[in-house]
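Appendix B: complex inputs.
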Amino acid sequence: MGDTPDRHWMGPEPAGAARRVYLGILQALEAGKTVPGQRLVETDLAQEHSVGRNAVREAMQHLAVRGVVDLSPNRSPAIRRLDLAESLEVLEVAAAMIRLAAGTAARAYSSDHSDMLESALSDLEAADTSADAAALNRARRHFYRALLLIGGNRELQRLFPTIGMHIIHAQYPSPKIQAARRVDYRRIAEAVVAGNPVAAEAAAEAHVEHVRDIIRTAT
Amino acid sequence: MGDTPDRHWMGPEPAGAARRVYLGILQALEAGKTVPGQRLVETDLAQEHSVGRNAVREAMQHLAVRGVVDLSPNRSPAIRRLDLAESLEVLEVAAAMIRLAAGTAARAYSSDHSDMLESALSDLEAADTSADAAALNRARRHFYRALLLIGGNRELQRLFPTIGMHIIHAQYPSPKIQAARRVDYRRIAEAVVAGNPVAAEAAAEAHVEHVRDIIRTAT
DNA sequence: TGGAACAAGATTGTAGAACAATCAAGGGCG
DNA sequence: CGCCCTTGATTGTTCTACAATCTTGTTCCA
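Resulting structure:
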């Protein structure tokens, strides 16, 4: 349907110059080139990406919104670091949001949407065999994007990407989580396709519960 | 327990110069001096508040995060306008978050926290009789702040204020909602004090349901 | 030796100028 | 009447300059 407002279709992302910095840092984080706690100096990043300090600042704001960096006055921004307690707090919020996303998608599902879920799941399989970190993250986002688009709740689309999941995945790059995803996402998808909100919500919560367990024991 | 990071204790708020603009606009919105759909011109605001254009831009970013303004490239930011459908979408997300906040607070409640809830509730009563719009909003925030502090989930504290509730309240300043709050908040508080998460979550959802009904009929 | 006070450097906070890029409205022309 | 183009308004972006603040290292005194 052509009514998707593509303007900032998935949570506000920076545009133009700031975007380069923003994507660069996210990418460096996924690649492990930057680690939690690391300080990010404005002028360095500005030179590195050939942009003005303003643009760097703007990128930092967006990263802070998504819970990737911590911003405090008169201090260099730092990649956010989560202790176990705060990780679990993030997961608790994530559980509520994923649950809502799954339930909403199940309620709104129609056969028009089958392509989205299919391609997301096949992406996941493909990435799973390749074991490429970037591809895995892409596939994960792809799945949630499908869920959010099917559900059609624009406020949820706006807020969902702001949960601090980037850091969670950067801090606990466990292959076990990926294994869990493969099973859990499929279960969620099945419930959505079946138009069964209760089952979808249950599957969503089960998934977060699995991640929670893995993280708890992995620490 | 002095470990509460007061730095950005309640969702990231702008600091310094940008803060003036940010607060000015929120205030103007609550006072009805700015209306949904209104365009906000950078240079005007900069002069008006005696700050640089970048400060205005920064304020806009924060307002966009909180769902107060809509930002699209090469266009003046505009106060967000919600049609009925999107209002309901916002409320759906709000329901999930408030539910989580209430449940978490109920689980974490101890007698140390009684003051917070008490003062929040008495604030609400006081504001209710005075019927001053600003005081009402302050009291509402006070209540949720208490809930979030009791629950202690830092990620929830970060994300909660970013739900687009500012606009909801700006667009539907119905006295009926305030009446519902008086009853509903007390019921939530009672469940929290009783340490009953299930009841707290139910009361939270009931409240949002009431607001939903009021908005549906008020349009 | 320990530590307090101070000095120097690094980094962020903020305003402003300048220019490019884009958009919106109005005017003229076919 | 409708299309195109010019023009003004507004945002996007970089750069400069300086104030405010933090950090670090050094000196000096007890």
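Chain A has a mean pLDDT of 94.
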